[in-house]
Amino acid sequence: MSCFNYIDGELHAEAVPVRRIAEQYGTPCYIYSRRALETALGDYQSALAGCDHLICYAVKANSSLAVLDTLARCGAGFDIVSVGELERVIAAGGDPARVVFSGVGKRADEMARALEAGIACFNLESAAELEVLARVAEQCGRRAPVSVRVNPDVDAKTHPYISTGLKENKFGVSVDEALRVYQRAAELEWIEVIGIDCHIGSQLTQVSPFIDALRRLLALVDQLAGLGITLHHLDLGGGLGVRYADETPPAVADYIAAVRAELGERPLKLVFEPGRSIAANAGILLTRVEYLKQTPEHNFALVDAAMNDLLRPSLYQVWMDIRNASEDEAGERASWDIVGPVCETGDFLGKQRELSVATGDLLAVFGAGAYGFAMSSNYNTRPRAAEVMVDGNQLHLAREREQLADLLRGEHRLPGQD
Ligand SMILES: Cc1ncc(COP(=O)(O)O)c(C=O)c1O
Ligand SMILES: N[C@@H](CCCC[NH3+])C(=O)O
């Protein structure tokens, strides 16, 4: 189900015409749908019903307070990779006791803050990190709950930049080393071993790599049990893909069903860290055509969004769907390169798109809710795009995000959640 639909030829975000949002807040502008976020999280929750679980939304995908606030109210936990993300979760009303902390380079001060906040688990990525965490925990006088992030050496069959579970990647530790790290962790007074973790990559479109990784983790769980080290949860990370072009990723329900079948009757709580599959289709980037420039080689549509606003096409050369926000069947179509004003030849949102465009038109880039604004920058001293959360027929500007934390808490109450 999409929450971005054409009604009478005009693109709407839930019940609001995007044209109205552009008039009110300007472009470029990220538009998020509250209902789409709730539905995507709900798909995970339904698939995991009856099973002890925790869904930790990966904050890096979209850390807008309005997004975190929405998900926190629906009961999500959070996967963070920095203390900045932790502060955002707390500011948005998220529960630190439902937070897992991933990342290869956690600093001691970040560990201390996370311990003080009382997070659920540190996902350790190296033997050296374990020693630092043990020291910090002792200094803070709080035992640190830990998982070891295992690098299962599984090919996620995705873009090499976002594949994380191969032995040549910097993430996690090998199965053999994990065994040693667990044995060392079990000896440390200020460390409490509670789980096991992996994350093999992002934008996975098949279930089999997840299941391969899960089998390797379960074998290790059994081996550890034999050594007297009992684990209570298994965190399979994030990574489930979405459809940008013609990909056919498994439905959340099918993915989770396969995981549950593999887990069998083991008394392990299941943890997931989905980012993209929650947020990607809950957001679009709206941009206005400033100029048309036609050369013998190319038709360029110069728009007011650029690679600093949406980096994915330039960085990974990925295809994201771009459509005119006004469906003008009569308009003549041509092949256009959609490019921004940044001084880089690699500054494009899409190339060779069959579109009908005119100066002043609004274009929408779909699937931009994940790794869109979150990866944006001020390159070329460009201001960041506005962010607007749509809730039915209500709009909420999510721009000065920090200052809006309290406002969001007041404004966005779901019925029965006061
Ligand atoms: C440790 C970890 N967990 C979760 C995620 C979220 O992944 P995705 O957005 O593909 O679900 C990532 C990013 O790939 C990650 O590095
Ligand atoms: N930034 C990537 C995903 C990174 C995943 C982070 N571990 C993307 O846009 O596809």
UniProtKB/TrEMBL annotation:
What lineage, starting at the top, does this entry show? Answer: Bacteria, Pseudomonadati, Pseudomonadota, Gammaproteobacteria, Cellvibrionales
Q: What do we know about how this protein assembles, alone or with others? A: Homodimer.
Task: Set out the biological process GO terms recorded for this chain's protein.
Answer: lysine biosynthetic process via diaminopimelate
This enzyme catalyses: meso-2,6-diaminopimelate + H(+) = L-lysine + CO2
What name does this protein carry?
Answer: Diaminopimelate decarboxylase
Q: Which PROSITE patterns match?
A: ODR_DC_2_1, ODR_DC_2_2
Q: Which residues carry this modification: N6-(pyridoxal phosphate)lysine?
A: 60
Domain Orn/DAP/Arg decarboxylase 2 C-terminal: start-end pairs: 30-369
Protein family according to the UniProt entry: Belongs to the Orn/Lys/Arg decarboxylase class-II family. LysA subfamily.
Q: Which CDD domains match?
A: PLPDE_III_DapDC
Gene name for this UniProt entry: lysA
